[in-house]
Specification:
Blueprint lengths: L16 E10 L6 H12 L9 H12 L3 H12 L6 H20 L5 E9 L4 H10 L2 E8 L6 H15 L7 E4 L7 H18 L4 E7 L3 H5 L4 H15 L7 E6 L12 H10 L4 E5 L8 H17 L4 E5 L6 H25 L1 H17 L5
Parallel strand pairs: 1-2, 1-3, 3-4, 5-6, 5-7, 7-8
Helix pairs in contact: 1-3, 3-11, 4-12, 7-9, 10-11
Length: 371
C-alpha cells in the first residue's frame, strides 16, 4: 500500500473548514501540437470515456489517433484561444474566484474554501484536494460542472476524486452532487440568458439544443445522460413558452465510426440548410462554460457547414460562463447542499468552537503532541 498523505500543516486544535471543489473537463496548456497531444492522451486514456478493452484501445490511440489528431485539434484551439489563455480555464477560474468572494462576504462563522480542478490537465484534482486539505478542510463538497450526469463526466470525476481522497490519512467527510439538469434555478438562469440573447439579436426561426454526444451503447447500458438532456431542453422550452416546432435537440462531437446518440447536430444542420432555413439559434446547456466544442465546433465549424448547405446563419448563444446569474445559481446550489454543515457551526457559535479547540490542543500537547 502506498504511503498515506498527511497534512504537513496540521496542528491539534486548529480550526476546521469546509472545502468545495468544482471540477470541469480540462484544457491543453497551450495551442501547440505537443500540448494538445499530451492533453488528448490523458483524456482519451480514461476508461470511463472510452469503454474499449485497454490493449485494443492502446493500439488505436497510439497508432491511429495521437499521431494525427493533435495537429488538427491544435489548429482548432488556436481559433478560440484568448489573450489570457484557454477560455474554459479563464471562465472556470473566474467562477471559482467570484464564488470565493461571495462566500467570504456571506459566511462569517465558517470558512469555506473554493478550489478548481480539471479532470485532465491543470489544475489537477490532486492539486485541488491537497490545497483544501492544507486549509484544514474536514468536510468536502464536490460539484462537477456538468448539469447532466454521465459516466464519462460526473462518473469519471467521482472516481478520480475518491481515488485521491483514499490516499489521505484523514479523509474528510464527503458528499457530491450527481446532477442539476432539472434544478428550477438552473432552468430559470438558462432561460433568462436565451431571452437576453433574443432581446439583443432578435429571435431565430428555431432554437436548437446541442448536447455533447455519447456512444449509443452507453444509453442502452443505462447511462441517464440522454434522458436528462431531453428533460433539460423540455423544461427550458416550457419556461420560454415554446411550441414543439420551435425547438429541437441534437448531439454533437461524435468520434469514430460507431453509432452515437442521435440526431447528430451536423447532419441536422445540413438538412435544414438544404431546405433553405433561416437563422437558427443554438445553445449548448450541457456546457457550463464555453470551450472548444461550443466556440469552434458550433459557432464556427457548424455555422460554416450550415451556410454551405444553403442555410442563412447560426447564432450561438453563449454558455453561462462567469455571468452574475450563473454565480448566484452556483452559490445557492452549493449552499443548499452544505447548509447543514454551515448550520451546525452557526448554532454552536464561533467562541464555543474556539474554546473547545483550545481544550483539545492543550490535552494533545500534554499527551506528547508536537504541535
Amino acid at each position: 500500500m502506498p504511503k498515506l498523505k498527511s497534512d504537513k500543516n496540521f496542528n491539534h486544535g486548529s480550526t476546521s473548514s469546509i472545502g468545495v471543489c468544482i471540477v470541469n473537463l480540462g484544457t491543453p496548456e497551450n495551442t501547440s501540437t505537443a500540448a494538445v497531444r499530451k492533453y488528448l492522451r490523458q483524456f482519451l486514456s480514461d476508461s470511463r470515456v472510452i469503454e474499449v478493452p485497454k490493449i485494443i484501445w492502446w493500439f488505436i490511440l497510439n497508432i491511429f489517433i495521437l499521431p494525427f489528431r493533435p495537429a488538427k485539434s491544435a489548429e482548432a484551439y488556436g481559433k478560440i484561444w484568448m489573450k489570457e489563455g484557454s477560455p474554459l480555464l479563464i471562465f472556470s477560474n473566474e467562477i471559482k474566484d467570484k464564488l470565493q468572494v461571495l462566500f467570504d462576504e456571506t459566511e462569517t462563522n465558517q470558512k469555506i474554501h473554493i478550489e478548481l480542478a480539471m479532470s485532465y490537465g491543470q489544475p489537477s484534482i490532486q492539486q485541488a484536494i491537497d490545497n483544501l486539505i492544507s486549509k484544514s478542510a474536514r468536510k468536502l463538497f464536490l460539484l462537477p460542472m456538468y448539469p447532466q450526469y454521465s459516466s464519462t463526466t460526473t462518473g469519471s470525476v467521482f472516481e478520480n476524486i475518491t481515488k485521491e481522497l483514499s490516499r489521505q490519512r484523514w479523509i474528510p467527510e464527503f458528499r457530491y452532487l450527481n446532477h442539476y439538469h432539472d434544478e428550477p434555478e438552473y432552468i430559470e438562469t438558462i432561460s433568462k440568458s436565451i431571452k437576453k440573447h433574443w432581446k439583443k439579436n432578435g429571435r431565430g426561426e428555431k432554437l436548437l439544443f446541442s448536447f455533447h454526444g455519447l456512444p449509443h451503447k452507453m444509453l442502452l447500458d443505462g447511462d441517464p445522460y440522454h434522458c436528462q438532456c431531453y428533460k433539460t431542453a423540455r423544461l427550458i422550452s416550457k419556461k420560454l413558452l415554446l411550441n414543439e416546432n420551435d425547438w429541437f435537440v441534437s448531439f454533437q462531437s461524435r468520434l469514430g465510426p460507431t453509432k452515437w446518440l442521435e440526431p447528430y447536430t451536423d447532419e441536422t444542420l445540413k438538412s435544414w440548410g438544404k431546405s433553405q432555413a433561416g437563422i437558427i439559434d443554438v445553445i449548448c446547456p450541457g456546457f457550463s462554460v464555453d470551450c472548444l466544442e461550443t466556440l469552434e465546433e458550433i459557432a464556427m465549424e457548424n455555422n460554416e457547414l450550415y451556410q454551405e448547405a444553403g442555410g442563412k446563419e447560426i447564432r450561438y448563444i453563449s454558455a453561462l460562463n462567469s455571468e452574475k446569474d450563473h454565480i448566484t445559481f452556483l452559490y445557492d446550489l452549493i449552499r443548499k447542499n452544505i447548509s447543514d454543515w454551515i448550520k451546525v457551526d452557526e448554532l454552536i457559535g464561533y467562541d464555543d468552537i474556539e474554546r473547545e479547540l483550545k481544550i483539545s490542543r492543550d490535552e494533545a500537547l500534554k499527551k506528547g503532541a508536537k504541535k
